[in-house]
Amino acid sequence: MSARRLLVIPASARTGSLNVQLARHAARTAEAAGWQAQLLDLRSLALPVYDGDLEAAEGVPAGALALQQAIAESTALLVVTPEYNGFPTPLFVNAFDWLSRIQAADGRPAGLASTADKPVGLLSASPGPLGGLRSMNFVRQYLQMAFAMLVVPQQFALGRANEAFDAEGGLADARAAQSVVRVLDALARLVPAGR
Ligand SMILES: Cc1cc2nc3c(=O)[nH]c(=O)nc-3n(C[C@H](O)[C@H](O)[C@H](O)COP(=O)(O)O)c2cc1C
C-alpha cells in the first residue's frame, strides 16, 4: 500500500523561520505516523508579485505550475503560516493567487481543479502569545472559499514559538507536540490509507 503524501508548505522562507521549524517538526511527526512528507519552499518558486499585465504578456510563471504539480501529487497539505498584522504572508497569498490563474490547457487541469476537495491542515507559529491564530483563520477562509479545499477543523497556533523548540528542533512542550498530532490525525481520517 502506498503511503499518503503530505505536502508541507511553510508560508515563510526566512532563514531561521519559526514556521519552517514548526513545519519540519510536523513533517517528522507525519513521517513517524506513516505519511510521506515533503516540504515546499515557496521562495524557490521565484514568483513575481501578481501582475495582470505580466500575466497577459508572459502567461503564468513556471513556479505556479510547479506549485500545482506538487499539490496534484500530494494526498493532503499542511500549511504552516506566520501572522503579518493579523494576516497571512504575501509569500503565501501571492503563490496561491498565481495558482488560481492557471487555466486548463493541453491536458493540464486548471489550478483550482488541483486544489478542489484536497484536505488541508493548518498550523501557525509566532513569538507572540496567540501564535498567529488570526492569520490561520484568514487562510482557512481563503482556502475553503476560493480554492474549495477541505480544511480540517483542528488547527494549532504555537505561541512563544521563539522559546518552543529544543536543540533537536522538536517541540519541548508535550501538549504542543500533541496538538500537531491532532491536526495530522484529522487529516488522516479524511484520506483513506493508500490514496
Ligand atoms: C510585517 C510583519 C508583521 C507582523 N505582525 C505580527 C502579528 O500581527 N502578530 C504576530 O504574532 N506577529 C507578528 N509579526 C511577528 C512575526 O510573528 C515574527 O516575525 C515571526 O517570526 C515570523 O514568522 P517566521 O519566523 O516563520 O518568519 C509580524 C512580523 C512582520 C515582519
Automatic annotation (TrEMBL):
PANTHER family, alphabetized: CHROMATE REDUCTASE, NAD(P)H-DEPENDENT FMN REDUCTASE LOT6
Provenance organism: Pseudorhodoferax aquiterrae
Domain of life: Bacteria
Protein name: Oxidoreductase
Gene3D superfamilies given in the database record: 3.40.50.360
Domain NADPH-dependent FMN reductase-like as annotated: residue spans: 5-162
Pfam families xref list: FMN_red
InterPro entries listed in its UniProt record: Flavoprotein-like_sf (IPR029039), FMN_Rdtase-like_dom (IPR005025), NAD(P)H-dep_reductase (IPR050712)
